[in-house]
Write a structure and sequence with these properties.
This is GlxA family transcriptional regulator. InterPro entries: Class_I_gatase-like, DJ-1/PfpI, Homeodomain-like_sf, HTH_AraC, HTH_AraC-typ_CS, INH-QAR. The protein contains 14 helices and 7 strands. It is of the alpha/beta class. The chain has 2 domains: 169 residues, Class I glutamine amidotransferase (GATase) domain (Rossmann fold, 3-Layer(aba) Sandwich); 112 residues, Arc Repressor Mutant, subunit A (Orthogonal Bundle). The strands form 2 sheets. The protein has a 4-stranded mixed beta sheet, sandwiched between helices.
Length: 299
């Protein structure tokens, strides 16, 4: 979906303009037929043939970042960066840009599902929680339908907002997302709760993963007593504070297992588990698989 959301607005722009405003070329590490995540094959040229004459090159990537290492791609990205070509990342594409070393002084975003793996692998980088970010010669967005919003902005940049609106209307894309709009539903929607102290507690729990907070610290942050916090969680979520916090950390750990190059003991440490053995028991109890088995299944 991310690939189509980026490419189709350019095709529509050509159609509506009655002339070739954009020429789309597809590149792969070695060229040849490359399968998308849906299994559709796309014929590509070798990335080494990407020349500085390109106005922009977008890296569209999904799946597991740890498996995206490609010296050919990284070398081409660095070469094009030196020549001033605009470089973009779609969905997990920013991870590839980071691995190539071309994001270190730029503002950027990445699909929320890949953000944890990127921050663990490149701790000096901090992606923004935004639908898309245009920072000079770096163009990044979160995936899904976010490329539609980013392409609307880029077409507006070249052809004006009225023409860009015609392109968006072509796809019934009448609600253009702001660049700074969130990628995910708000906490209230995800958890189905609206009490401010409870939302404050959940927000803090999702933000502090590596060194879990105590129940008293969470309550202090939420502005309630520990007993009040217990009642809020039991009454609105039907679970204890500890159970919800453990699930939040476990979800984070599963994303790291599937998407990051960290070894299992590092994932356990990064998600606040006392030891690799404790982590393994928790993962198996929740999923029926060992951490290594879950990693293989998710790769």
């Amino acid at each position: 979906m991310s690939f189509a959301s980026a490419a189709e607005p350019l095709r529509a722009a050509n159609l509506l303009a009655g002339r070739a405003l954009y020429r789309i070329r597809h590149f792969g590490a070695e060229g040849g037929n490359v399968a998308s995540s849906s299994g559709i094959g796309i014929e590509t040229e070798p990335i080494r043939d990407a020349s500085p004459e390109l106005s922009a090159l977008f890296v569209c990537a999904g799946g597991r970042p740890a498996g995206w290492a490609s010296p050919e791609v990284h070398s081409a990205l660095r070469r094009l960066s030196r020549s001033g070509t605009r470089l973009g990342g779609i969905s997990g594409g920013a991870f590839v840009l980071a691995a190539a070393g071309v994001l270190f002084d730029r503002d950027f975003t990445i699909h929320w599902e890949h953000a944890a793996a990127l921050k663990e692998t490149f701790p000096e980088l901090s992606p923004r929680q935004a639908r898309y970010v245009l920072d000079r010669d770096r163009l990044t967005c979160g995936g899904g339908v976010a490329p539609l919003d980013m392409m609307h902005a880029l077409i507006s940049e070249r052809m004006g907002s009225a023409f860009a609106r015609r392109v968006s209307d072509w796809f019934l894309h009448t609600e253009i997302g702001e660049a700074s709009a969130p990628q995910r539903a708000a906490l209230a929607e995800r958890y189905g709760v609206h009490r401010p102290p409870l939302l404050a507690a959940l927000e803090r729990m999702e933000a502090v993963i590596e060194a879990p907070l105590s129940r008293a610290e969470i309550a202090r942050y939420a502005g309630v007593s520990p007993r009040q916090l217990d009642r809020l969680f039991a009454g609105h979520l039907g679970r204890s504070v500890a159970d919800v916090y453990r699930e939040i950390r476990l979800r984070h750990a599963i994303r790291l297992l599937r998407q990051s190059p960290l070894d299992i003991s590092q994932v356990a440490l990064a998600t606040g588990f006392a030891s690799p053995s404790h982590f393994a028991r928790t993962v198996r109890a929740a999923t029926g698989l060992s951490p290594s088995g879950l990693r293989r299944a998710g790769g």
